[in-house]
DNA mismatch repair protein MutL (Desulfomonile tiedjei), 587 residues
Amino acid sequence: MSNRIRVLDEGVINRIAAGEVVDRPVSVVKELVENSIDAEATSIRIDIERGGKKLIRVRDNGFGMSHDDAFLALERHATSKLRSEKDLISVATMGFRGEALASIASVSKLRLVTSDASDEPGAEILVEGGILRKSERVGAGKGTLVEVINLFYNVPVRLKFLKENRWESDLIDELITKLALAFPKIGFTYSQDGKIKLDAPPVRLTFERVHALHSKDVRDNLVAIDYSIKDVRVHGYVAKPPYVKSNMRSVFTFVNGRSIRDRLVNSAVMRAFSNLMERGRYPLAMLFLEMPPEQVDVNVHPQKAEVRFRKPKLVSDAILNGIHESLMGAPFNPPPGQREPLFPMPSYNSLSRHMREEAPIIEEMPSRAVTVPPPCQESRMDEPEAFEYKKSGSYSSMGVLGHLPNSFVVLYTDDELVVLDHHAAHERILFDRLIAADSRGETSESQGLLIPTVLEYSAVESRALAAHLTLLRKMGFAIDEFGEKTFIVKGVPGWYKRSDLEEFFSSLIAVMLDTGLRGDPSRLKDELLKDIACKAAVKEPTEMRPQEIRALLEDLERSNAAEVCPHGRPLTVRFSLSEIRKKMGRK
């Protein structure tokens, strides 16, 4: 009888295991840099060539290793970060399995140079395909250098399936950006084929690292988040709509400093923005979640890219509430003493000076003229390390110049000319009121119709409408079934000013029947409320009295409305005075 089952060779075992930890160059960079972070390095340099296929070099000034520890570090499951099985319950380091160096060494030519703070010489070790080629004691400064040469040279199948160099480099770029965001107190230098791609010196605050890594266009649209529920805290930054991206890679999520991808987190982020963006668009977010290590399991994925939360609803609620709170109009401002201003102000503001010198216009003037309020004066924060969040150019402080054809209102602040979409603003106000009333369980008052309206639909449409009568009644619509496929509307909410009820309800039914929304009741409700607000909002008034415009601005101010309508369209378009002066040839 033949023995068909055999124990694999140790080298084959190591290469199979390496495939779980190291699938491409970015995995190698991730493991090595995380080791440097765990070694308490304050400076990390990463160099790659040919997308990391030819060379990956990571050098740090961490606490390094002794000669004996360096040898042990190259053994599988040898680590300084765990002592017992209990430590897996509350992992507080970036790495913990002890697989990275051994796995990398089995599929590359690896050179390790390291030295600790002792008086003993450092160690230099060369390993090719998991086989030790050289070992000697050398003089070296405190810290560790790891060079990975010709990755997958002995696993041609894996090498064949790597993408082109540019694609692999882009993945590493994204990883380094994430790590630099997560650890602002560590200096990162990153070069690609001999050219410096990132040079981020250590800073005290995450804000300063954001300033270094992102363009002014991004910074100008960010608002800060800092929200806590019980033992979960979420902080960071999100971009104000209508600033959007084309894919979900613009959402950076960190749990206790670890960059992760998680469906729960992504779902919570998308739900928070669901009423602020068009479909197919994604937010820009940098979210840092902090919680006790025992509340999150990081030992569920070989590359530590996925996690499991002990209290997923608490995490989801923290993200939802934090983002919602942050998007109430607070601007993203630098702390005092920032290296360069994010919002440079023109040295001479002729428009605001002119407005201040003009006498107030009295009420007897023509209807488009209104009293000009004094400009909003901003205060400074006293604490040197605090951020300053204030509603600069708030709606109630804006002056009204008049209105353009269709639904556009022309406003101004000290340093901007602002065009407001009247319909989009009214839609935003109505939607926020409907959402707030629904969350409080309130029912809007209904105004009876002199002549009730009878509506008739197909069997499918009737079933869809009947399923949502309770919601419509809470919104203030007095509607009842009036036969098998017939409904009667006896009253409408006070804010509903239209008369074409048949078109209005047909539109709602279309939303109800949208197959893409089935299976998500909360989103279906939001989409219905969006449609109600859109249909009920004032369309394109031929004339807008100053009192009406002022009332709209005050409503926007009181509601803390977002800068977009519920469908993601912007409420305003802004032109800075400096931009206008430049276009007019003025300096």
Summary: The chain has 18 helices and 22 strands. Residues 80-93, 329-393 have pLDDT under 50 and may be disordered. The first helix runs from residue 10 to 21.
